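To whoever is on call:

I kicked off a structure prediction for a single chain this morning and the downstream step that reads the tokens threw a length-mismatch warning. I double-checked the sequence; it's 911 residues and nothing unusual in it as far as I can see. Pasting both halves so you can look.
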Amino acid sequence: MSKDVKKDERIGENDDLQQANSVESPLNTSTPKMTNSDSSPKLTRTPSIDGSLNDDLVSVSGNVGKLLPSSRMSMDSFSVRSLDSSAIGGRISSRPFVFDHSNHSGSMEYSPLGNNSIFEIVMNTRRKNWLGYPSVQDIPPVVLTKDIVDPEIQNTVMNYVQSIGPECAVFESSNNLKIINRIEQIKQLEIHDNGNNNFGDESETALQNKENLKELEKVPDFYFSKNFQLDNPRTFQKVLKNVDLQLGELSIESKPQRDHAYSELRDRLNDYLDAVEGLLVGEISKSSHKFFHALGDVDLIQRKAESTVNELDLLVENADILDKEKIQRRIDLLQKTFKRKNVQKLEQGLLQVKQVLLRTEECRKLYEKEQYDICLHMIKSIDLLIKGDGSQDKAVQQWVQGWPFKLADLKSVPALTETREFLTNMKIEIGGKYSLQLCSVLLGDVRNYCKSVSSKATLNRLQNNTREKKFLDIDEGFRGKVANIVHQLRRCEELASALSLYQDKCIAEIKSIIKSYLPQETLPSESSSEDKKIGTPGTQQYPQQQQQQPVNNGSKLSKLIKEQTPMDFQDMLVHIFTHASEALRRFYRHQKLLLDLSLNEIVSANDPNENQQSMITQLDIRNGINETIRILQLRTGKIIAVRRELTCNLRYDHFLELYSICVLFIQECEAVSGEFLTRYLSDVLAAQIKNFIVNQSSKNIRTIQRKIESETWTPFVVDPSVQRDVNDIVSSMELDPIDWIKKSDLVRASEEDEKNDDDKENEKKEAQAGHKKSVVVEDNTFVASDSLLTNIGLIKEVFILAVNLPSAYLANFEKMCYDLLRYFNIFAVAALNDPAKSSLQSNKNYSIMGESLDCLSRFVHIVQRFFQRLSNFNKDYSSLDQSHYNHLLHQYHMSSEKIYMANAPPPPAPV
């Protein structure tokens, strides 16, 4: 087949494209739209039938040559949409645009697109002095004409596009010369072959290759460039090379010229393609002998492969024979050997199970005999025997001595599930026995310690009168006994639960202490035995329980508590607080002892499976003791709250004693626990103080009123104790008297109560014998009256309360003193103005009333100075203003003048 025939086969497929392009289009009457050279639209896209001048079709004007009979398929690489009229040079001239100005040239200095006024105006390449953006006048709008296409032309173009669809798809898949440039590779291969040719004579093949190279040199170099892009207008212009395709004149009249131009361009590209094909054929012919040699090698390899397969088949047959005769026989022998060993291991496993059951029965008998220590050793050994680990246990090694195989792990054996549960429960039971034993030993120590300490000694310790710390003493025998029990509990793995049980026992112990001192309901027949005291004097011990079981529900117990005398109730609280304080101190000593022994036991055990960090938190019983303190304060607070109405009417010294013992106990709880656990007892005590102050204030005023109403205003005998109280009141302006501070000392108060009764009787007798009826206040002597001495006593009580109670209530106490002085004056003046007081008018004892008022006027200054001194030591408290006391002194001065006027002699009669 000739070369021309091949060319016709490749090119004949594009005849329809040439004919379609030869059809005249009405688009020639308008100016086409400029397109970007970088865009490369596909040829398969249907031309716009309804389009306008904005289509991507570029008009190219020029002469049309004659249509040649042959064409090449390489023309399919042309993209009509990528042609640019400015890129076609030579004799091809571009059609001018409607908006182009005559004074603009196609120089590339102003526009890379040639005659493109839009680019020049927008980019401002000519008029550099423009200050603003281009306006509508600079860029006149393009007037578009209606796009009317002949239906015949439209149908022709659409049919042509459909017919060239498959060829266009082939072209799109093979037109990328940028990725693989085979022409460039062929040229390099030829140069390499020529450099390696050592033969001097030129054969016929070499001459043919040189001819092919000469033909290939005719192909322009830009075809072999890596950046070859046919859609680039300049590249496309080089490909055309003075050939005018007249793409802008798609009319029937211009068809011959377009066909001639297509033929000319096709012949040129066919020549280039022939040169490339000739070189390819030459290169292929040079390597043909290598191809035949390769085919021979393939046949040889195939024959050798068949021989190898046959030999492998023979080898497989021989291996099968050898397997049946020798290997299989040995495998059977090994299987029998393994089977015998497995049977032996099974027999040993059964013996191991039997040994577990026998040892478990022995362990049960030891438990029944209460030999807990040996039982624990046995349980540990049985556990190791079940786990199959007897390397470190001598008992297990003795049990399995002479056994040939390693012990099996029997934990997953269902038959031993009940046995393992039995051993676990036995260990728990033993741990429970030791836990009860530990609690019994520790609680026994607490009770013995509390019995050895008296209430007086506890009060001395609470009031810091002694530094003796007997609660820290631990007997070595007791320590060793506890250490032994802790060791056994650790072996039982019940140490944490035992300490938890002891915490519960501590709470129960404190509850029993409180309950033992509460009043009990007795039978009528036993009411005569009220002289029996609770416990032995001077020691902390539990009261003796009555023979009958008292039924004390909430209402009955509250009634019994309310029926107690103030002294009995106070003694009950003292016993509860002192006994509980010593018990708490001992509990905390036990806490340190147990933690020390438990940590030493855990460290000595060196058990890698034990989490020591979590164990330490479980071994500390501080939280349980703190809970004991919280419950203790809650219960005692409820007991105190039952008598809140009775507490308001207590004598001031009894109230101070109640306050002191409660405060001492609260401070003791904070000292031993290191934190403030509950505010309940403090809140109850604060409420009691407030109620007491309110009740005491109103009670004092009523007392003064009754005294003045029943006062006869006669001189009253003054006891020496009253003068001492006056002296203490006067000295309190500078410092607190010692006797007042001692009121909070519970030990001294209890010792002096018995002495004070006898001393008061003696002082009354001495005062009556001496007939002293005056009071000395700051070197001033005043005749005493009964109401005056009562008021002084009440002022002293308020002063003592202010010194001993918290400073938060100083304002209330100052108000109480101020009211005592103010209401005394008010009630005295009211009695003076009351005509019903005939006794006062008949006896005319106005001077005694005046002495009393003058004496109390001195106390106004003392009260002011006393509370000013206390305010200097308390930032949160400030005494009353001076104006209040000045007003009170002014009232006393007016009352004295009124009494003087009432007691003045009548004026002389006129002469």
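Update from on-call: the warning came from a stale cache, not from the record. Cleared it. Sanity check on the structure: The chain has a mean pLDDT of 76.
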